[in-house]
Specification:
The complex is a heterodimer. By secondary structure, chain A is of the alpha/beta class. Helices cover 35% and strands 25% of the residues of chain A. Chain A has a domain of 161 residues: P-loop containing nucleotide triphosphate hydrolases (Rossmann fold, 3-Layer(aba) Sandwich), CATH 3.40.50.300. The chains are: A alpha/beta, B mainly alpha.
């Protein structure tokens, strides 16, 4: 179990900018993400949500921007205490068990069979432990990705639209686990454009549109009365990208 | 049609009479190709993986050169090796011209770019898929390289087969550097060339049939084994 006090928090982002060619994909994003609860990054398609998440996790870096965890600049040691679940599951061409053991080995250097079986039971994949991961269904693949991400007991868990295109059963399992790991002390930062899911999970909402952070507020406030014009339009289903 | 029947009859006769000459030529062919293939794989597989996973100045140029070398004309390779190994050449002192070693060197030059070039392509494709995961897990470089080779193993078997096909069917280079010397450097392909020029078409065709059957058999066995393991693991 992760200790309740999260040593990687708060996350501070200062003037995050990112351009590709002539296109400005992220523009002047600054914020401070607190340890408490689940933070949902919300916004329409192509808003820059995934890009922002990748910056937070260090998959993309930029010398001009600064991302700090507990006032320390993002480095390898901090990144080793984080995990990410990708929108399209990235699975090794190996068995379900070996996919998890590979991740565990990167962190602890030891393969704890009991721990692996326990996490597989949690995502309801215990009966598929020796199956090849490539042959799993979409929902099973994403549940395996989540199991691989949480087996290392990360301090911060990033989820990039982890439940898009999944069946209700898989969504239910994933959301249940997200809430559990958060209660155990893991900070969860998830990207979604699913309003209902955001309502079910979020404590805070970061609303991004066209690479700009339009709003960073509590979920209740955002869903009852969004401050930004873009937020209001998005909630009304009228925001055009 | 008569020539085909004669050839098939001659081939069967040669095989079942355990013709000493045929056995000698047959085994030398495979000895040369298998050694060249092993050396090419030992260098080419890690080299291809390195090129696919590393970024450095001149990388694209190097990949371009390796890809160009995949279509090297064997006679040009033969000539190049010949010049270098001949008495007046820079490596003449080794005294290995007209020996199986020279033939192995020529075959390595032909097979190595195929192994390295195709490996680069396969691992590059896999890297596109895996890269974010490995960066996220902060996986050490050496572990990622190992993971790429393990996960691309079935595709890499096909690469090795392509190398084998190139080596076993090669004649232009080995005839120049080997000299087609009886009991020393005569292999299947050079024997076929010689018998054809002598007008012994039946014998040449018979040897061709044996070479073809052997080559197809090896490919079928390896492919069968590959899919057998794959099916067991991935399901049908």
């Amino acid at each position: 179990m992760v200790s309740k006090k999260n040593i990687l928090m708060p996350i501070k982002v200062k003037k995050l900018n990112f351009e590709k060619g002539q296109r400005k994909l992220l523009s002047d994003i600054s914020c401070e993400i607190k340890a408490r609860g689940i933070t949902i990054i919300l916004g329409p398609n192509g808003a820059g949500k995934t890009l922002f998440l990748k910056f937070l996790h260090g998959l993309i870096s930029d010398s001009t921007s600064e991302v700090t965890f507990a006032n320390k600049t993002l480095n390898t040691s901090i990144r080793k205490q984080q995990s990410m679940v990708f929108q399209s599951p990235i699975l090794l061409r190996r068995s379900v068990f070996k996919n998890i053991s590979f991740a565990l080995q990167q962190r602890t250097k030891i393969i704890n069979k009991e721990k692996i079986l326990k996490v597989l039971k949690r995502v309801d994949l215990l009966n598929l432990v020796n199956e090849n991961a490539i042959l799993l269904s979409g929902g099973e693949k994403q549940r395996l990705s989540l199991a691989r991400a949480i087996v290392t007991l990360p301090k911060v868990l990033f989820l990039d639209e982890a439940t898009s295109n999944l069946d209700p059963y898989s969504i239910q399992i994933i959301e249940k686990i997200i809430k559990e790991v958060n209660q155990q002390g893991t900070k969860v930062i998830a990207v979604t454009h699913d309003l209902l899911q955001a309502k079910r999970l979020a404590n805070d909402i970061i609303f991004i549109n066209k690479g700009k952070m339009c709003e960073f507020t509590g979920a209740k406030i955002f869903f009852s009365k969004p401050k930004s014009k873009e937020g209001k339009l998005f909630m009304a289903g009228k925001l055009i990208v | 049609m008569e020539i085909y029947w004669n050839s098939i009859f001659t081939a069967i006769n040669l095989i079942f009479s355990f013709d000493k000459k045929l056995i000698e030529v047959f085994f030398l062919s495979f000895k040369v190709t298998i050694i060249a293939l092993l050396i090419s794989c030992l260098i080419g597989l890690p080299l291809g993986t390195f090129l696919a996973t590393q970024t450095f100045k001149g990388r694209n140029l190097l990949i371009g050169i390796i890809n160009s070398l995949m279509s090297l004309p064997p006679v040009v390779v033969g000539l190049f090796v010949y010049i270098n190994l001949s008495r007046s050449g820079p490596f003449g002192w080794l005294g290995i011209l007209y020996t199986p070693t020279a033939m192995i060197i020529a075959q390595i030059i032909l097979i190595l770019p195929i192994i390295a070039g195709l490996t680069t392509q396969i691992i590059e494709d896999l890297q596109e898929n895996y890269n974010d995961l490995f960066v996220s897990l902060v996986t050490p470089k050496i572990t990622t390289i190992k993971a790429y080779i393990i996960d691309a193993r079935y595709s890499l078997i096909t690469v090795v087969l392509a190398g084998l096909a190139k080596g076993i069917s090669e004649v232009g280079a080995v005839i120049i550097v080997g000299g087609n010397i009886d009991h020393l450097t005569r292999v299947m392909t050079t024997t076929i060339t010689m018998e054809t020029s002598k007008g012994e078409l039946s014998l040449a065709l018979a040897l061709g049939i044996i070479l073809l059957i052997t080559s197809i058999t090896i490919n079928l066995i390896v492919t069968y084994k590959k899919y057998n393991i794959k099916d067991r693991y991935y399901g049908k």
